[in-house]
Write a structure and sequence with these properties.
This protein is an all-alpha fold and about 1000 residues long. Among the domains are: about 1-120, no CATH class; about 130-290, Orthogonal Bundle (Arc Repressor Mutant, subunit A), CATH 1.10.10.10; about 340-570, no CATH class. The chain has 54 helices and five strands. Strands 1-2-3 form a three-stranded parallel sheet. It has a two-stranded antiparallel ribbon with strand order 4-5. Strand 4 (about 195-200) and strand 5 (about 210-215) form a beta hairpin. Helix 36 (about 670-675) packs parallel to helix 38. The longest helix is centred in the middle third of the chain and has 20 residues, at about 405-425. The two termini are about 50 Å apart.
Length: about 1000
Amino acid sequence: MSFFVTARWAEQADSDAFTDALIAQLAPLAGIAGAEAAPAGRDALRRLLLERAAERLAERDETLLLVVDGLDEDRGARPGSPRPSIAALLPPRPPANVRVLVTSRPHPGVPLDVPGDHPLRHCPRRQLDANEFARHTREEAKRELHEALRGDRAQVDLLGLVTAAQGGLTLRDLVELTRLLPYELEARLSSVFGRSLETRTRWDLEEEKGYLFAHETLREQAAQALGPAVAGYRDRIHAWADEYRERGWPEGTPGYLLHTYGRLLASGDDLERYLATITDPLRQERLLAVTGSDAVARADVQAARRRLVATPGGDLGTVGELALLNDRLGHRGGVLPEYLPAVWAALGRRAQAEGMARSLIDPEARQRALARMVAHAAVPDPRLARSVAAETESLALRRVGGAEVYAYEHVGFCVDRVTGLIRAGEPHAALAEALRPPDGWERALVLRTLAERARAGTLMDVTELADVAQELADRLRAQPDRALLLGCAALAVREESPARSERLLRAAEQVPYRRAGHSLACLAALIARAEPERARRLVRRVRLRSPFTVEVHPALAHIRQAAGEETGGIFALGAAAEEGAEVALPAFNSEMRRCLGQTLGLAGRTAEARQAACVLEATKAAEVEAAIALGLAATAPDEAAALARTLAERSRGSDSDHAALLPLLPVLPEALALAGDADLAARLSGYVQSRTERWLMDLLWRAEGGVEVKRTMRRAGLRLSPSAFTHFSDYLDVLARVKGVDHAAVLAGKRQGEVAAFCFASLIRQLPPGDPRRARYAERARAEATDGNPGHAVSPAAWWAGLAATLWGQPDAVRFWIAARVRSAARTSPRARALVPRASSTHWLASPFERASAVLALAATDRDEAIGLLKRWRRRDAWSESPEHAEAGALWAMTEFLLGVPDAERECVVPERSTGPFLATAALALLGGGREWHSLGGSVAAGPSLLRRLLVLDSYTDRPLAVDRAGAERLIRELLVREDWWRALPALALLDPAAVRRIGAAVLRRLS
């Protein structure tokens, strides 16, 4: 695989383009589901695909070579670039069977963001001699460039526009910009610029050729020769873009303005124009209409987010608004009907179809849509067919289980994969893919469908299919695959060559006794529709040999359906729909009704399909309508296109915008409360599906005095009673603010167990350092956690409550409380029992969270011992493969962070899926957010809340909080360009309250 860095072409000159290109090339090699990711997750996806591709190639004893040409032309390597350099993205420790070949000029050298230990800094280097032919061509190009500079004004204008545009202007674009006639331009481009320019295929559907300099040196020379005049030509391009903006980006808008222009603006200094262009909703609609997806628009928005985040003083409120826009664009295609991309493919709009299919959020839906798109493409594309087959392999290998409708759709998906390969002229690969499903009965149904379509004349020549199937069967010994291939060949030539068909069936029936039951059952399922009597004879043989084999039963069920013995199942009804027979639609099974409606629509039975859809909910009815459009594509293309456009517009008008806000809504009210906007927090809390009082608790926690607490409660429409709060300890937090800690402690004493322990721990947080009640409440918390019996085994939540109370109230007793945990574990764990004689030992605790909490607590009295335990325990968790240790890396990284371990000495690696919660919690810590309200009640289950509990545990010790706003801002900026950017909002509220209020107002406008 390869990538050629081309500085003179903005679309091929940075790490974004490098990542896009590698994902496109690696996905087929890796066979990964969901090889499309949101912009913020594409770096992780690129790394994952490289690892998986290397693994698959290693199984075949093959080597993967990555070639990157022209690192010196990387725009991201320049000082001040918001993007990482391509060199920094090259794998520092590639898999053993991966090689990386890089070419570059000696200067400017290795980019600064490449680490010192990266192989690029010490790998072998070879100096290449200049090629004589290339030198001659380059010198000729330079000569012609200088001649062009000495030409007339029109010639210089043409040169200036190509220089300023950074590549991609087409002949049509240059006609509009220069006002020259097309024949005049063609003459100039073909004569004077013969060696100075070259063309690249455009990204859009028309596949226009965009002009750019043949070599980066030529572009640099042209820019140097033109000097300040380049800015004037860039202004001309801006004015040209303004004309189309004022017209609302109409149909026929040049592709340059929809794609490359955004990168041109990103490299300039006019931030206002840049943001106005990429956020223009009409431009986004035109991009969607042209490409079929929002991928280009999202890439522009994500690039702007990175630029603003990397710019000192960049407006974080604008970054948040761009993140909201990116989420909305990402979810806009998530509710498109799965059949819709296939409609555009059948109408010859392949690029639009692929863009639409890849915009689907659900990975399974995306794979099904891609396979169907290839199967129905108006012009088969062998390369795309092979790529999609590899990309969708993981779903083909999935077992379908007992869900009948899902099984029916999975068979259809497998048939689409195979059909696409056959139509692309790959019959051998197609039949190999037909054998991918893990269940023999499903392989039988796929091959039966292929044979039936070949006999109907809609797929391929029956003799060719039979020859290929027999050829593959002769190479196989594994059953039931050999029998199924022979049976498929027999079905294909059943009418053309009955004698050959009979010979093939007899050969298929000759299976070893050990595998006879399963093999014959699958063979019977394959031929049951064409030869029911023969299938029954095979079934009788199966019942005699293996009546209770689990894998045989599904095949027997499909034999009965194919023979007409069962008429109510989805497979029998689907076959009837395809054959034109009458179909009894189920009244109460909506999934089966939708599935049958789609089958009827594909078969051209439009009226019956719409009858099936009339009682379905909107999204399921849209799926049926999309299948109808696909059925009409061959006979009524205009009607199919109109219906497809209507469905796309209808899906974009659904609740996808609200769905994009779902992850954000539970967090935003809390952030607004921290930002001091109680009214907006209250209004947005009404849109949260599972309403919580978290935002209100933040306000109450900050309230000064009982009067303000009561006023805040009244404004929220709540009474001060336990029923208004999720946990009783939260109620006591508020009650202590109104009636005092002592009054709340009396109520806490009336509770028992871990509830009482959490109550006393919560109350300690409200007492000043040195208050004697802190120690008294700590003792009560420990007693309640153990029900008065120090040897009693306590729940993880109760033990942690006791630890928190002890650390905040009696830090000298922390070691005793941890040792008690070890003693209680000794009753059930031989490993812990061996530690009991060392009562003060802390070598064993139940979970990574307990161990991390213990380290933080011990650090209050003996930092050296705590650091020693941290190093020992984190190694143990790093070696463990248990699921409960999956997030141990994040917990230990947070522990190191809170203990102030220097960056150079930190060893813990945060898992990718925990990076967002880690950054959010660390930013809060640097802003003193650990002392903002956080509930202590409830369980200590896995998740981001564990990181926040560690922060709370550390924040209420006696040592003063150290605030580092600059460090917090760096973490927030890093988090704001991720997909889970909304996790930064609580910390952002402490750093920049106005930014959070702007984001809240934008969300309210979208919801209103």
